[in-house]
């Protein structure tokens, strides 16, 4: 509540960046998982 | 005055209204930012959970694939170890079980190694060396000892330039006797055959085994291992026997008698005994004549 709009925007940008990284990692893991699954089949 | 009063200028700046509007806009932006921050944080949390789940699944799948590949390789390398596969599969569920399984397999390996060493020791105990005297012109590494042999290798090395041939008994499939034949370094006319193991079958041809055997203990002085029984066989005489078959049996018998006679005449004890016997016979004959 005490944070100003600029501080909030900064925090939001940081969380967006983190979100992007997690999505990339998830995408990579999903690709590897399905490749492995396909290999096992 | 009225003019002044009617034309009074509003000197107020009306600053309060503008400040309030800005504050309202700022408040709405801040609340929107806070809402967006909350939404993105929640999304991040969900994505993190999904990432953790996917990583776990990936690791489990990867482990299964590795085990499958390992089992396949193990089956290809050593088919008898196939029985160990279930124990290794159990190792996935708990580390303790895996540890026990590993130790039991190590014990089995140790037992296998001990058994193998014991077998090797037994084989080493049954090593015998036989010297075959051949003609000087004969350069082959073949000795006729009555058994059928299958040659499986020949070797010459820098430190041992004399060629040596390796044979395996071909009389019976279960027979594991091996033979190494090499020319003697001291006497090139002598073939040294080293036998490993014992035949688990009778000699295929009795004639072959009897042909030309001349077990003379007083053979040439050759280096011998005390642990290994050494026999000397003269193969130069066997050349006289053209084909070792039952048809030639009388010839072989004659040859044997000749060789026995020659070896006996060389024995001074036998000569003395024979002389005494002949003398005694002659004496008895003279007594009866009288």
Could you explain the architecture of this structure?
The complex is a heterodimer of chains A (41) and B (290). With 41 residues, chain A is mainly alpha-helical. In chain A, 88% of the residues lie in helices and 0% in strands. Chain A is built from 1 helix and no strands. Chain B is an alpha+beta fold. Chain B contains 7 helices and 6 strands. The longest helix of chain B has 63 residues. Chain B has a domain of 163 residues: N-terminal domain of TfIIb. In chain B, 51% of the residues lie in helices and 13% in strands. At the A-B interface, helix 1 of A face helix 2 of B.
Q: What's the average pLDDT of chain A?
A: 87
Total beta strand runs of chain A: 0
Low-confidence segments of chain A? none
**Distance between the amino and carboxyl termini of chain B:** 210 Å
CATH architecture of the domain at 127-289 in chain B: Single Sheet
**Tell me, what's the shape of chain B?**
rod-shaped
Main sheet overview of chain A: none
E-strand count of chain B = 6
CATH class term of the domain at 127-289 in chain B? Mainly Beta
Major beta-sheet overview of chain B: 6 strands, mixed
What structural class do you assign from the helix and strand content of chain A?
mainly alpha
Rg value of chain B: 50 Å
Strands of the largest sheet of chain B, in order across it?
2-3-4-5-1-6
Assembly level: heterodimer
Subcellular location (chain B): Nucleus
Protein name (chain B): WRKY transcription factor 40
GO biological process, one term (chain B): response to molecule of bacterial origin
InterPro entries (chain B): WRKY_dom (IPR003657), WRKY_dom_sf (IPR036576), WRKY_plant (IPR044810)
């Amino acid at each position: 509540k005490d944070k100003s709009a600029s501080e909030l925007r900064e925090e939001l940008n940081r969380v967006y960046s983190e979100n992007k990284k997690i999505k990339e990692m998830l995408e990579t893991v999903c690709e590897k998982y399905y490749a492995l699954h396909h290999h096992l089949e | 005055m009225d003019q002044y009063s009617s034309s009074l200028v509003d000197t107020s700046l009306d600053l309060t209204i503008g400040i309030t509007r800005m504050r309202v806009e700022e408040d709405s932006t801040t609340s929107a930012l806070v809402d967006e921050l909350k939404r993105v944080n929640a999304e991040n949390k969900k994505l993190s959970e999904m990432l953790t789940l996917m990583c776990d699944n990936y690791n489990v799948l990867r482990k299964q694939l590795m085990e499958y590949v390992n089992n396949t390789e193990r089956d290809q390398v050593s088919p008898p170890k196939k029985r160990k596969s279930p124990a290794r599969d159990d190792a996935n569920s708990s580390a303790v079980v895996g540890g026990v399984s590993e130790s039991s397999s190590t014990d089995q390996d140790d037992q296998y190694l001990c058994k193998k060493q014991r077998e090797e020791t037994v084989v080493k105990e049954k090593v015998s060396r036989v010297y075959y005297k051949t003609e000087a012109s004969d350069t082959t590494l073949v000795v006729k000892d009555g058994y059928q042999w299958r040659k499986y290798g020949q070797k010459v090395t820098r430190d041992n330039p004399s060629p040596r041939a390796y044979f395996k008994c071909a009389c019976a499939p279960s027979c594991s006797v091996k033979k190494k034949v090499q020319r003697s370094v001291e006497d090139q006319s002598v073939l040294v055959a080293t036998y490993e193991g014992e035949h688990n079958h009778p000699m295929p041809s009795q004639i072959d085994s009897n042909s030309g055997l001349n077990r003379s203990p007083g053979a040439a002085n050759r280096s011998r291992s005390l642990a290994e029984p050494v026999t000397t066989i003269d193969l130069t005489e066997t050349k006289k026997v053209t084909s070792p078959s039952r048809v030639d049996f009388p010839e072989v018998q004659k040859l044997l008698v000749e060789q026995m006679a020659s070896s006996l005449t060389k024995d001074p004890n036998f000569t003395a005994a024979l002389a005494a016997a002949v003398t005694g016979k002659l004496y008895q004959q003279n007594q009866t004549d009288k």
